[in-house]
Amino acid sequence: MKILAIESSCDETAAAVIEDGRTVLSSVIATQIEEHKLYGGVVPEIASRRHCENIVGVVKEALIKANVTLSELEAAAVTYAPGLIGALLVGVSFAKGLAMSAGLPIVPVHHIKGHIAANYITNPQLEPPFLCLVVSGGHTNIVKVTDYTSLEIIGKTTDDAAGEAFDKAARALGFPYPGGVYIDRAAKSGDPAKYRLPVPKTQNPYDFSFSGLKTAVINLIHNTRQRGEEPDINSVAACFQLTAVNMLTDKFISAAKDFGYKKLALAGGVAANSSLRESISKAAAENGMEFFLPDLSLCTDNAAMIGCQGYYEYLAGNTGELSLNAYATKKLQL
Fold first, then answer.
1. What share of the chain is helix, strand, coil (3-state, %, to 5)?
2. What Cα–Cα distance (Å) separates residue 106 from each residue in 24, 320, 323, 324?
3. What CA–CA distance (Å, rounded) separates 306 from 18?
4. What is the dihedral of CA 9, 10, 14, 17, to 10 degrees?
5. CA distance 8 to 58
6. Do the domain assignments include residue 122?
7. Contact of 96 with 306, CB cutoff 8 Å
8. 3-class secondary-structure state, position 17
9. How many domains does the structure of the chain reveal?
10. What CATH number is associated with residue 180?
């Protein structure tokens, strides 16, 4: 079964053709990172306009690379929530038009489910149930994956997402957008014990809070410069990353123990962070748990993960109508 998938929730216009849920026949991404770097973050209006300009070419290229025609497809999957509403509407509108013209069922896919499904592509042996930590620029969740389409959030951020905190801390440190990769690189040359940063507390033991940590980095830099000194940028990055990674790892492993999970997975853009991958891998091994990681190319937004999840949604009968709308926010459950 071949599915065309479309992803346009933020600043990547992506299309892919997936066969039987886990085989990627093609995956094409038109990125806007260089343009948004000028503004230090994603500008929603610009993102939407670029999606309009790119989506036809991206879909055509995905079909050509997969060597398939529309008549060989059995469904069209598309990210419909959550994300930037203007960006999502471009993908949803295009997918609906294509589905109507080609006589294909349309499959709405939740973006978080898509990130989790990236693990199925990299790890063909992975099957639910398992516990997944989803960490990206807009989301930080601990998710029970009961089966392919039934998921439950047991922990979430109470303020900023981890990826957002990485980007804002990076901006304060003078790094370009997106900042997570620059913090990861700088941290390798820094002293993670040089500065003391707070570990935010939450009422729910599985929830996260990154706002105070991000603000502490900004204040540390400002206060140091007000004294006429220059902060050790690499060490600030190392301290911030260590604090954030330890928080994510500790709460994730704690949740796995409390709920009896022996199979863990990581997903989302921040899943590309080398320190986070190493930290959870080590902690999982120490506790006799299996740990699954998506390939680095599948951590950031892409359509392959949407096609993978779309396959399982289609099998479960979760198809949409031509009245399908896009949603900036949406609970994980359909």
1. 45, 20, 35
2. 19, 6, 11, 9
3. 9
4. -30
5. 11
6. no
7. no
8. strand
9. 2
10. 3.30.420.40
Listed residue (50, 65, 49) closest to 15, CA to CA: 65
Please give the structure tokens belonging to residue 278: 């190493």
CA distance 172 to 220: 10
Q: How confident is the model at residue 333 (pLDDT cuts 50, 70, 90)?
A: low
> Which residues are registered as beta bridge partners of 244?
none
User: How far apart, in Å, are the Cα atoms of 282 and each of 29, 116, 162, 249, 278?
Assistant: 32, 21, 20, 10, 6
User: Are residues 216 and 283 both part of a single domain?
Assistant: yes
Q: What is the pTM of this model?
A: 0.94
State whether 165 and 251 are in the same domain.
Answer: yes
Tell me the C-alpha distance between 303 and 314, whole Å. 16
pLDDT digits (tens, 9 = 90+) for 16-38: 999 999 999 999 999 998 899 88
Residues 140, 220, single domain; the answer is yes
